[in-house]
From TrEMBL:
Locations listed in the record: Cell inner membrane
Main location class: membrane
GO BP terms in the entry: bacterial-type flagellum-dependent swarming motility; chemotaxis; proton transmembrane transport
Any Gene Ontology CC annotation: plasma membrane
Protein species of origin: Thermodesulfovibrio aggregans
Record carries keyword Transport: yes
Assigned keywords, A-Z: Cell inner membrane, Cell membrane, Chemotaxis, Flagellar rotation, Hydrogen ion transport, Ion transport, Membrane, Transmembrane, Transmembrane helix, Transport
Protein name, UniProt field: Chemotaxis protein MotA
């Protein structure tokens, strides 16, 4: 929603200022310039992107415009409670007691209480695969941390690839605007025998191409890429929180301490306070 609001502010400011100066809006309506600039931009994106990256750009752009998944304080509180429940069960009943939780998360008495987490495929895979590894091997905390760092970094690079390509397209829009302007000037040169008003209109149409390329770069596509980049970074931060709890627990920390490691890795603006977490844990234990 904020993306749409921001876009309307950009459009309203630019067009509003133009109208305040008694600009003629019909002059800005140049379908041929739109076809040249956006057609070329889409073509460049197709050339530059493997199919999975192209799908990521489309999916990410739509998700960002429509709001999409963003982590909230409640999401972080849920993962802290989930980890606390799992760690407590392991500490009381042994590591093998969570085998069914790991193999069938949808049927797990613990994980099924957090349906949003189960739908988060990357986070679910990170948690269950790590617990499988701990159950079936004698991996050391140091090796486990290295393993998790590798997985998180690989996921991040995969998720960041569409962002890089969208940034590349944003950077190319002013250049494509110049291409449209040059083509407009070429057409104008063929009208030199026409009256001055015809030539003026033709030159104006050509300059609209440059205007559109620059506006789309700095007003829309560039900011959209930044927003998508922020979402990708949020995903990495969320996985880092899970990693910190797992490493602390495997290193021998008590469930409460392992969860506290995770809580302190949460970005401050989304981090539940110590007392908020304590209250939720009490409610969980009492079955409220």
């Amino acid at each position: 929603m904020l993306v749409i609001v921001g876009g309307l502010i950009v459009l309203g400011s630019v067009v509003g200022g133009y109208i305040m100066e008694h600009g003629n809006l019909s002059v800005l309506f140049q379908p041929a310039e739109v076809v040249i600039i956006f057609g070329a931009a889409i073509g460049a994106l197709v050339i530059a992107s493997p199919i999975h990256v192209l799908k990521g750009v489309i999916k990410g752009a739509i998700s960002t415009i429509t709001g999409g998944k963003e982590y909230s304080k409640k999401d972080y509180l849920d993962i802290l409670l989930l980890l606390s429940e799992l760690f407590t069960k392991i500490r009381k009943e042994g590591l093998i007691s969570i085998e069914q939780d790991v193999e069938e998360p949808e049927n797990s008495a613990i994980l099924s209480k957090y349906p949003k987490f189960i739908k988060n495929h990357h986070a679910l895979a990170l948690l269950t695969d790590t617990l499988r590894t701990v159950m079936t091997t004698t991996v050391s905390p140091y090796e486990l941390e290295s393993l998790l760092d590798t997985e998180i970094e690989t996921l991040h690079e995969t998720e960041a690839a569409p962002v890089k390509n969208l940034n590349t397209i944003a950077d190319s829009l002013p250049g494509l605007g110049i291409v449209a302007a040059v083509l407009g000037v070429v057409l104008t040169m063929g009208k030199m025998k026409e009256p001055p008003e015809v030539i003026g209109h033709s030159v104006g149409a050509a300059l609209v191409g440059t205007f559109m390329g620059v506006l789309m770069c700095y007003g829309f596509v560039g900011p959209l890429a930044k927003r998508l980049e922020a979402k990708v970074n949020q995903e990495k931060e969320y996985l880092q929180v899970i990693k910190s709890a797992l490493i602390a627990f495997v290193s021998g920390a008590a469930p409460q301490i392992a969860v506290e490691f995770a809580r302190r890795n949460i970005p401050p603006h989304l981090r539940p306070t110590f007392h908020e977490l304590e209250e939720e844990l009490r409610a969980l234990k009492s079955g409220r």
